[in-house]
Every structure is written in C-alpha cells, then in structure tokens.
Amino acid sequence: MIKAVIFDIDGVLIDSFEANLLYFQDLMPRAGYNAPTRKEYIPLFSKSLLDVIKILTRSQSEEEVKRIWDLGASREIPYNVGLVTMPKRSDVTIKKLSEKYLLGIVTSRIRGYAFEVPKLADLRDYFKVSVTYEDTAKHKPDPEPLLLAAEKLGVKPDEIVYVGDAASDVKAAKAAGMKMVAFPKELEGADAFTDSFEKLPELISAL
C-alpha cells in the first residue's frame, strides 16, 4: 500500500530547463570558461550544480571547481525564475495528493534554492520533508537521498512512489526499493509513466 509520494524538483515540479541553461551560459564565462550550448547542456540538466561544473570545466582541481561552485551558489549570477514554469494544475494535484499521502521532495538542488520559484514556494507546506544536495554524502543515482527521505517520513521504502524525469531517478528509486513514476517522458525501468501531472493521483493509486 502506497503511503507517501516523493518528487524531484527540476523537470517534474518545475520546468526549469531554460532558466538553468541561461544560468550556466552566464556563470561559465564569468568564471573564465566557454558557455555551454543548448545541445551540450541537455544531458546535464538532471545533474547537480557541482557535477555540471566538473563536466563543463574538465578540471581536476578541487580548488578550481569549488571556486566556481561558490560563485554559482552565491547567486551572484542572477537566476531568472521568470523563465520557470510549472505543470498545468500542479497546485490542485499536489493538494489532492496530500489528502491521501505524505509528500516529500528529493532534489539535487542546494538547500537555499530548492524553493526559490515563488509558485513552488507557495506549495511548500504540503511537503513534509525535503532532502537537498547538502543533506547526503552520496547523490542520485545512489539511493541514499531517497532512503533519508523515507526515514524522515517514517515510511518504508516499498510504501513510497518517487516521481522523476531522469534515468538516474529510476536507478535511485529501484535501488531504494521504491516504485517509480516517470514524468513527463517515458523512462526504461519505471513502473508507470504519464505526461499529464493531473493524472498522477489516478496512476499512483493503481500501483
């Protein structure tokens, strides 16, 4: 029996691709590197700030990577939340799900920016726990963040559904012993898929 639903943020609760792309296109030149093209950034979208920096710089220097991470984490480079959108009627869906399940968040975002999008911040109280990048030593596709969320919720992993948009989300959910719903695109290994956020309650209740 499903008792809790955990969501990824980027790509699920919010469509932040354009905002994230623009952010890195501003950050990397400021740090002395080439801006990523749209094509180069597509496979990086689901990765953490730190991992994107490591890939784009190809630097082996922890000090150099940290310098750019600090610049990025400081938001000295503005992040255009105006480019971020949310799924249609996501607020209604979240409220509906919260009436039946405990809700949580597991994201690769750093803690200070998990809820920086105003419309998502308005829904913050519906999520009982949020696990961000700083909360664990290991990150998706490792199951550690999801297992921490389960522990905080007080729910067994096999009683949880994780909603994600990347292959790393599938791997993390399966390793944690959770069900996995892919949104908004199909992913190999997911237990279910939908491209309509509004259909999540019906889909989850059938798992």
From TrEMBL:
<dbReference type="GO" id="GO:0008967">
    <property type="term" value="F:phosphoglycolate phosphatase activity"/>
</dbReference>
<dbReference type="InterPro" id="IPR041492">
    <property type="entry name" value="HAD_2"/>
</dbReference>
<dbReference type="InterPro" id="IPR023214">
    <property type="entry name" value="HAD_sf"/>
</dbReference>
<dbReference type="InterPro" id="IPR050155">
    <property type="entry name" value="HAD-like_hydrolase_sf"/>
</dbReference>
<dbReference type="InterPro" id="IPR036412">
    <property type="entry name" value="HAD-like_sf"/>
</dbReference>
<dbReference type="GO" id="GO:0006281">
    <property type="term" value="P:DNA repair"/>
</dbReference>
<dbReference type="InterPro" id="IPR006439">
    <property type="entry name" value="HAD-SF_hydro_IA"/>
</dbReference>
<protein>
    <recommendedName>
        <fullName>FCP1 homology domain-containing protein</fullName>
    </recommendedName>
</protein>
<dbReference type="InterPro" id="IPR023198">
    <property type="entry name" value="PGP-like_dom2"/>
</dbReference>
<dbReference type="Pfam" id="PF13419">
    <property type="entry name" value="HAD_2"/>
</dbReference>
